[in-house]
Amino acid sequence: MSSSKTQLDAYIALGVPELWRYEKNQLNIYTLQADLYQRVDVSPTFPALPILDWVADVLEQSVAIGRSPALRAFRKKIQTLKSEL
Question: From CA 70, how far away is CA 58, in angstroms rounded?
């Protein structure tokens, strides 16, 4: 049994409702449905936010400009969004 399968089984046993996995240079969001994880396009936890796009941008920036500057830019984006609400 692969370690990935074992991890998923553990999350299922714990009842973790939403799981984000970075696989093959892509973020995937899964939700627990009928004791299986199903891939979804929108996070039920953050339905109004384009999480997949934002995380992809941060990861690309991390490679280009470094992790710390990329995370600072991401935090600023979130703060700007919060102030607009």
Answer: 6
